[in-house]
Each structure stands twice: as structure tokens, then as C-alpha cells.
Write a structure and sequence with these properties.
This protein is 67% helix and 3% strand. It has one domain (46-278): Ferritin, core subunit, four-helix bundle (Ferritin). The chain has helices spanning 14-22, 46-79, 84-110, 134-163, 167-194, 200-224, 233-241, 247-268, 273-278; strands spanning 2-5, 116-119. It binds fe (ii) ion (2 copies). The site of one fe (ii) ion has 6 residues, from α4 and α5.
Amino acid sequence: MGTLRLRVGSSPLRTEHERLVRTALRRGDEAPEIPDGVVYEGDASPRAIEIAREAWRARALHEHQSSCVFSRLLPQLIEAEASIEYKTVILRSAMDEIRHASLCLDVVRYLGGTPEIEGDLATVPLPEHVGRTPRERALRNVIFASCLSETISTSLLAEEREVTTEPRIHRVVEQLSADEILHAKLGWSLLGDWLPMLDAEEREGLARYLPLALGSIEQKMLAAMPLPPPISEALRSELAALGAIDGKDGREILYAVLEDVIVPRFEELGLPGKKAWADKRAA
Ligand SMILES: [Fe+2]
Ligand SMILES: [Fe+2]
């Protein structure tokens, strides 16, 4: 157990951190960070604000964990002889996720909450896929983390961009959304690049992995989007305006993106997406 805080410290590296956020990680003209002391003054109900705050807090923890997934993919990409752009973009993605967590806590503070989370800060190593080649191992983990997880995030964020009307929070959602598009692109690019180079056994190994990947991501996402107790339409739209779409909408988007985007994409690449979806099983 521990406390996750993402305030910038006062060490000599502060300037470098701020420069990275302004330059390397930048999207668009205006940085979405919410300055200290700027607080929400809209007219959402206290109940909506409280629920939205908790949603953003939970999201911060999830974003922060994603940074470990990307940084742990670097050694696997090195072992699999990936070209350099995959290595730099994977590290950028890890940095993006730390920043996303910090932006989520900015929103918590903006909504009047304490920008920290008490929780289990232990991180989980990536699956080793023992016995598979370095190339197949890296591809399996990139499929899970990027092609599945990030493509789903991209669709959820596209919906949030539509419904989040609170301007400061909207700007945060825009940054998250733009970054997650790159994180998903990374996986699909690598898969498209490497598939033609795989031998029959590696290809077969990937095809065998897909039902497990699809079943596991489904379970993981359902757990992350619990169905809320019935709430009024008014509260629902207040929450949406604050960037918290409810689990029911999230689950609809999850199945739409899995069935209409991800499975067909595997098929286009010559992988048995439809069969894998029909045979899905969780770990
Ligand atoms: Fe993220
Ligand atoms: Fe991401």
C-alpha cells in the first residue's frame, strides 16, 4: 500500500520535466494542465462532483499503471530487434501515461478533492510467454497493451470528447484522447510491420494467443466499468459533462470497438480475429 501523488517536486529536474511537458509531450496550442488554485465554479450538483472526483481518481491510478506496461515493453522490443522509432515511441507512451495520471489528479483537485490516491502501488510484470521467440513475445504483449487496450481507450475517449462540456476537463480529455490514438497506432503499426516476417510457428503462436487476449481484455474492461446503481437522467448528464461516462455506456462502446474495429482489423491483417472472438477465454 502507498500514496500516489503527482505533484512536481522542487528538485533540479523540475525544469527538465516542465520542458518535456511543453515540448516533447505537447499536443495543440494550450497545455491542459490545470494550475494550482484554479477550481471548478460550475453549477453541477455536489453529488455529481463527488462521483466525478472518484472516477477521475480511479482513472489516475489506472493511467499510472499503464506507464509501467510501456516501460516494460522496451526491453522486449530491444530483444526482438525492433527499429528505433518503436523504442522511442514506447518510452514517449510511458511518459504520456505518467502525465495522464497527473492530469487526472489535476481534475480531482479542480473538483475540490485531494489530488492523491491511497492504494496498492505494486506493479505487475509483463507475461514472459516462455518458449516463444522474442519477436512473438513482444508482439503478444504489444497486441494486448496497444492494439486491444489502447484501441478501446481511444473509442471511450472519443465518446467522452463529445459529451464533456466543462472546458478545463474537456481540454484534459482532448490530450488523453490524442495521446491514446498514438498508443494504439504503435501496436497496429508493429503488427503490420512484423507479420510478414514471422515464420509459420510464430504466426500459429499468435493465432493461439488471440482468444486469451480477447477474453482477458473483455474481463479486465468489464471489471473497470462496473454498472452503476440506477441514476437519474439529470445526474447522468451532469456526470458526462464532467468527463465521467457511466459503465453502461462504456460497456456498449467496449463491445462495439471489439466487434466492429478490432476483430475486423485482425482479419484484414490475416489473423483469425473472428474465430478468436468466438473462442475467447479469460486467463
Ligand atoms: Fe493514458
Ligand atoms: Fe495510453
